[in-house]
What does this fold into?
Amino acid sequence: MRLFRAFLVACVALAVPTMIVAAPAAAELPWAAPPTQVEPDPALAARLFGSDTPLRLLREDEGVPGWSVSAPEGPVGYIASTWEISRSVGYSGRPIDILVAVTEAGKIAGAQLVRHNEPILTLGISTADIARYISSFSGIDLTRPPAETGGAAVPDVIARATVSSGVIRDSILRTARTVALARSAAGGATLDRLHFAPKTWDELQAMGALTHTTVTLSQARAALGGAKVPPPEGEGPFIDLWTALLDPPTIGRNLLGQQAFSRAVAGLSAQEAALFVASSGLQSHRGTAWRRSGVFERLRVVQDGRSLEIRAENYVRLDGLAAAGAPDFKELSLFRLPSGAFDPTRPFTIEVTATRETESGEVALRVPLDYALPAAFVRAAAPMAEVEPLWVSAWERKRFEVAGVGAMLTVLALILFLQQSFVRRPRLWRWGRIGFLSVTLVWLGWIAGGQLSVVHVIAFVQSLLSGFQWETFLIEPVVFMLWSFVALGLLFWGRGVFCGWLCPFGALQELTNEIAQRLSVPQIQVPQVVQERLWVIKYTLFVAILGLSFYSMEQALVLAEVEPFKTAMSMLFVRAWPFVLFVAAILFAGLFIERFYCRYLCPLGAALAIPAKLKLFDWLNRRPQCGRECRLCEKLCTVGAIDTLGRINPNECVLCLRCQMIYHDANSCTILKRRLARMNPEVPTS
It folds into this structure.
């Protein structure tokens, strides 16, 4: 998981650097503000719980999200908002709010869609389809494993709306489970993850939520006797060590502040815990060796006689504390304690080990700090059946597609890294490219659903601005792998790594034009001065779609219909006739002007051209005579990306490598022909 996150961070930074730099803080954006809380009414409560009698709703206090629901004969259950509890953000980057009803026995009674801004309409799915999907969660028993029979099964995601419906699925289950745990659906013990009360540093310490121990310099010097370099004498701290469990909001939210606390616990499952460790003094609780080994050798957690190793992937550095009265610390750390290896409701000990070299070896000092979570933060509840994250099951379910895309990307990387050997063989270049584009069109586009879209770019930007969540983008393995490769490819080769090789609709255009040329369909050579004016169209479309998304995502998605990808790839031309006619017109124009849509209309190509400005390498060879003595490459360029001076425009180049094949082919390149003629005067040059 850590590798996925690190890889995606790198892709984010590479793919849209200009957007990241220009992005203001999410809190400053009007569209990032939390939606107004929707209050359920008795009629809605009765419908969700299937009751014919009037129901009463009660909001207990500000520290507990959700409403208690009761009938005249007694409690019925609870209703909670997915936005309020899980801060569910969809693929559009905007909040998804669903009211979820949970019975006293720990079952989902029903769910009601309140608001969403998902791009489902562009996928041929209506809001009514989403509402029916949400209602299908009724009857799920949260106290039983999903594999057990006798209860309703967790609904699978909606085809063609995998990401949106996956986020909805996870937010409903997470919210329902949190409510059931916190409201004591059955016996057992668990953390109170709902209640919040403002507390200062001293108040948290007084109630036992914070504990600490101090070892002075003199005490450490005595314990480390015989060390070559012992600590100095004094009453100052050798180490002043503090710890706390952050999961209860009264502890974590007071210590870190609302925003940092939300980030800290966002990725935790119901069985994981967040451990806070802070220290000051001569001795560090972290050290530096963990950067090489990946393990914090100085720090360990001991519970019930078992020692828990803390690894680097479970560490987050904290930059400051929000609690009033908090002292200054040398080091602040947050550690995620893995599921199954640690019980946060039971006492434990953290140990920091200090070592010094002696003449005969090494001497060690162990500094233990005992901690027990105060009883006020432990509530009785049944352990809910965990459902694995949707992205994990998505990758397992699409193993074949993941392997296929991985093989395609490996082959493409070899082609581009070894392009000199590839293009020196004209027949290999020609049939290799036709074969790869055929696989891109048929398998990647029509079978695996790997057509990227400007909608992905817009959703990604919106997600950056309003609360980025890794799991949202990991839900679609094929799309995630393609975007990751394209993001890195932008640095190495430019936009052509996608547009020229991995775009199914681009492949469709090039293959149909190839057939047209074989049938002697006349090709139109667009003058360079006209081309430069027509290029403006796609950049204008991209800016318009992006700008409109900040005002209305729904309207932006309507404008994004300028992309023919959904009609031609996702829906296989099974759509209303105006959409099919639009795609047919584009393909018809492409018979006369190769890659007509890519050249002038594609907003996705325009979006990729912007970060491609950061391209680090230029592996496309040119000669000084290109454009002056020979203009063959200019005439044969797939998208007219070579100007009259022989220069290649990286914003328009799709990396087809045709010009490189000509560059190395003595039978095609005019310059090579002349050189050959000078070396062999008897050989004709024409």
